[in-house]
Prior knowledge:
This protein is mostly helical. 76% of the residues lie in helices and 3% in strands.
Amino acid sequence: MSSLAGNAxxxxxxxxxxxxxxxxxxxxxxxxxxxxxxxxxxxCKVSGFVMGLSVIGSIFNITxxxxxxxxxxxxxxxxxxxxxxxxTIFYVCLIWVLTVLATVPNFFVGSLEYDPRIYSCTFxxxxxxxxxxxxxxxxxxxxxxxxxFCYLRIWILVIQVRRKVKSETNPRMKPSDFRxxxxxxxxxxxxxFCWAPLNLIGLAVAINPKKxxxxxxxxxxxxxxxxxxxxxxxxxVIYGLLNQNFRKEYKRILVxxxxxxxxxxxxxxxxxxxxxxxxxxxxxxxxxxxxxTV
Length: 294
């Protein structure tokens, strides 16, 4: 169950990262080539809305992953009940409902506009001071606080357990399980690093738009904006660098694209063969680590 629940949030995060590649980013390329927005107001609003869904959906899914890992390690006795199959589906749906609710007000405050500095229709920080502050708090400060708490508790428990089993022949935490946890932790750290500049600028501008906005250098805003949206491209790289299973799949996909005949052979073989071993859980073995710290 732990693997299923953890994978559900990862798939949801991947969807949030991919959605911008199919609609907003191609329109940004058109604006760059045309040196301006030529696709009309409707495409502008929808593009900005979809980009907002991707951004807020990403951080909400990262928060969901952190809570899932925290419950799995620190409260393993109740984990299977809290993250049952139907509960997990409900949590993922709830994440996207909250994402939509956080993004829809853009239409009412008129904050989705074309910004020539970044060639895209996006959230304009100076339109509504109250909405900008609310969005920064909901989209960045609160999730970062929750995720930081979860990972700090996990790290504390991991250190305690590793010290206890240091002299044991068979360690209770598999190296692969620890790498999986480390992967998600790095995803969070890089997300915070990429999004912090843009959110801090937005918060400063919202508090005092007339004085602060003119003082923000254009290059700093553009750099912070592209740092933030470049984050969507980094998660797949992180998975490939830190997770052996992802690296194997990447290699298999690349080889299959280069030689399509092998791809169809893999499909036919995968349909007739049964899995030989049970995959390990996303982070830790629930049988070996039944520790409740609260």
